[in-house]
Every structure is written in structure tokens, then in C-alpha cells.
Design a protein that fits this description.
By secondary structure, the chain is of the alpha/beta class. Helices cover about 50% and strands about 15% of the residues. It has an eight-stranded mixed beta sheet with strand order 1-2-3-4-5-6-7-8, with helices on both faces. Strands 9-10 form a two-stranded antiparallel sheet.
Length: about 400
């Protein structure tokens, strides 16, 4: 099966005027936006946009004309994929502007957004997922333990600024945390901006702390234009309270965390290959929300306090440095853990009590549901077999 590389090869010569922006374009752009285009493109909407191919060439030159990795857990092939896209008719003439980058350690913020202007005048806003920085991963944790992160505010501000600066409709996309942020921004921007959103793509982004955002008029109005894509054993996209209006995309990997990589999502004939949620995906759906949502505010504060202390003690700014200097980083983390008082440690371990029972309960529900589905399918097959036998009997009697 083909992925984004093959999609770019197959449809790279087809302009956006011939084939409008679709699901596969969303996947490809979200994937390559992990490259640091903010290093060569201004963050202002007032500055002149750059052609996509020119921006990519500048970034490649800045990197010494080498395909360098941009993070420990980010797909190693995105630099090469970015340059391949830059040299196609379809993507080269796009323009890119307003590459916004906000980074802060406390409170943890890693916010990145950019706008791509298609040749047909449609504006595509991409919100980046978590990069290699420790602050980015700390902000990820804040999504699960807090009800609000600073990136939510920045995402709404970015959309409103884009609406004022640009004409035409918008397509809003994001992967992982970027998908979560994209959905929040679309639900909380002004009605005028919301009306201009032609499509919203949430690619395996986590949910929110409760279902209230999905019961709002804003969500109901957005729903016909909302595309929520997840892999068949989704892990990240099943966290917290989420909508059920998702499309399952086939991944080449078996496990949910590995399937989170957009490079593993399968595309054939220009469209994602759809499938059904796997047993593991259903187990994640049942169990993960309960595991996180049952944590109290006090327990959330404990998790944040301990995590901040441990990550801060590593002395590193990103995961690459953490692994490269693992010895000193682990010594710092160990010293920080030992310095915590016993009461704090006891609270931390208490959070995970009962987790095994929750997982077992979720597994029972999935097994029961699967058994019922198998029974229904067997009954359907038997009914078809009996019907075929009856038809054959009638045909035989008529022949006599």
C-alpha cells in the first residue's frame, strides 16, 4: 500500500485547480510542517508570502543542504519529503506566511502555526503537533491534567489574525496536539471566522476534559465540515472525551503509538485507505478516558508538580539532548525524585490505584461487543445460506 511519498509522486503533477485540496494533502502538509519553516518565514501576516519551493530551498540551505532529523521521535524522512513536495507542480506554487513560533518553559508552551495559500486562493492553516522540546511534551501532559493550555489562546488569536489579513476561505489542519488545538480554535473563534472555515482536519488529536464542547451550537454547525482521522489502533486520539465522528485510516504499524506517525497512514488513488477500529483501538477508547478523567484536580496538581520537577532537573531542553546525555540527565532526575517528600510520592502512586481494574473492565466490554458482532455476522451468513438454498430449491422445482 502507498503512503504520502507515493501520493506526492502520483499527484505531484496535478494542480490544485484540477484536484482540490483533500484528505491526503492535509496528511502530507501536517507531516512536513514538523520541519522548522519558522526559521526562514516571517511570523507576520503583513510580510510578503514566500513561494513554498523557495522557502524549502532556503531551509535546506540553512541545514547545510543535508536532510537532518528534527527530533528524536519525529519521522526521520520528513526533510526529504518536504523537498520532494517542493519540486512538484502541485505544491511548489503554494505560498507560505506567518510561521508563528511561541516557546516558553513555565508555563509550558510550544505553539507553532503557519498559513499556506493555495493557487486557487484558499488559505490552509496548519497547527503543529508536539516537537522535540521538553516544554512541548510538558504541554502535552497539561492537556491531560489541566482543562486549559496557553496554546488554546494562541490558536484562536492566530485564526482571528489570519481572518483579518487574508481574503477567501480557510482549511484548518493539525496533527496530534495540533489537531486538538485546531478543533479548539475552530470552536472558539468568532462566528465570522467560523463561517469561512471550509474544512477542519483533526489528525489523531486528543479530546477535551468533558463532552461539553461537542454539545455546543458551534460544534453542530462545524460538523458537516469536520474531518477527524485516526488510525485503527489509535492511542493519542482516544485520550480524554472525544467525538465519535471519526474516520479510521489504515496504518502499516500494529501498535497505536507507532500508528500515530502520519508516514504510516495508507493512501491509495489519492485517498486515505479506510478501515474499522481494531480491538486494541476499542480497548483504548474504553479504558484511556476513564484512566485520565477519574483523576481529581488535586491529583492533577501532583502530577504536574512532580513532572515539572523531574523534567526540569534533567538539564536538557529537548528529547534529543536527553538521550544524548542520558547519564547526567538520569542522575539529575533521580536526585530530584529523591528530594521529593514521601507524602508527595504516596499521592503520585495513589493516582494509579485501580488502573488495572479499569483496563480489565474495558477489555470485558470490548470482548462482549466483539462476541456480539461475531454472533450477528454468523447469523447473517446463516440467513444468506438458507436463502440461497431456498432459491436453489425453487429453481430446481421449476426446472422439473
Amino acid at each position: 500500500m502507498a503512503g504520502t511519498n507515493e501520493y506526492v509522486k502520483q499527484f505531484g503533477g496535478v494542480s490544485f485547480n484540477e484536484r482540490h485540496f483533500g484528505d491526503a494533502d492535509n496528511i502530507a502538509l501536517c507531516e512536513v510542517f514538523y520541519m522548522h519553516l519558522e526559521n526562514v518565514v516571517s511570523e507576520s501576516f503583513s510580510d510578503e508570502p514566500k513561494r513554498f519551493d523557495e522557502a524549502c530551498e532556503e531551509l535546506f540551505e540553512l541545514n547545510g543542504r543535508k536532510h537532518k532529523p528534527v527530533g528524536l521521535v519525529i519521522n526521520k524522512g520528513i526533510s526529504e519529503k518536504l523537498m520532494n513536495m517542493a519540486h512538484t507542480e502541485r505544491f511548489s506554487e503554494m505560498k507560505v506566511l506567518a510561521c508563528k513560533h511561541i516557546y516558553n518553559e513555565e508555563p509550558a508552551v510550544q505553539f507553532d502555526a503557519a498559513t499556506f495559500i493555495l493557487p486557487d486562493g484558499v488559505n490552509v492553516v496548519i497547527f503543529r503537533g508536539t516537537d522535540d522540546t521538553i516544554a512541548g511534551w510538558k504541554e502535552d501532559l497539561d492537556i491531560y491534567t489541566k482543562k486549559y493550555i496557553p496554546s488554546y489562546k494562541y490558536s484562536v488569536e492566530y485564526l482571528e489574525e489570519a481572518a483579518k489579513a487574508l481574503k477567501g476561505d480557510f482549511i484548518v489542519c493539525g496533527h496530534s496536539k495540533g489537531g486538538n488545538v485546531a478543533l479548539y480554535a475552530a470552536l472558539n473563534c468568532s462566528p465570522e471566522m467560523a463561517d469561512r472555515i471550509r474544512l477542519l482536519y483533526n489528525n489523531d488529536g486528543p479530546g477535551f476534559h468533558d463532552l461539553r464542547p461537542f454539545a455546543t451550537p458551534a460544534y453542530r454547525e462545524l460538523l458537516p465540515r469536520y474531518r477527524h482521522l485516526i488510525p485503527q489502533a489509535s492511542f493519542i486520539g482516544m485520550l480524554l472525551a472525544h467525538d465519535d465522528d471519526y474516520t479510521v485510516v489504515k496504518s502499516t504499524r500494529l501498535m497505536g503509538m507507532l500508528q500515530h506517525d502520519l508516514a504510516t497512514w495508507q493512501i491509495e488513488n489519492g485517498e486515505p485507505v479506510t478501515t474499522k477500529l481494531s480491538v486494541l483501538g476499542k480497548l483504548n477508547d474504553r479504558g484511556l478516558a476513564d484512566l485520565i478523567l477519574r483523576i481529581s484536580d488535586e491529583q492533577s496538581d501532583t502530577v504536574n508538580e512532580i513532572t515539572a520537577a523531574l523534567l526540569g532537573s534533567s538539564g536538557e531542553k529537548d528529547l534529543t539532548g536527553l538521550v544524548k546525555n542520558a547519564g547526567s540527565a538520569l542522575r539529575g532526575i533521580n536526585a530530584a525524585w529523591r528530594s521529593l517528600d514521601s507524602g508527595m510520592k504516596e499521592k503520585f502512586f495513589g493516582i494509579f490505584k485501580g488502573s488495572a481494574a479499569l483496563i480489565r473492565g474495558a477489555a470485558r466490554e470490548v470482548r462482549r461487543e466483539t462476541a456480539e458482532q461475531l454472533k450477528t455476522r454468523a447469523e447473517q451468513r446463516l440467513a444468506k445460506k438458507n436463502l440461497a438454498a431456498k432459491i436453489a430449491k425453487v429453481h430446481k422445482s421449476q426446472a422439473v
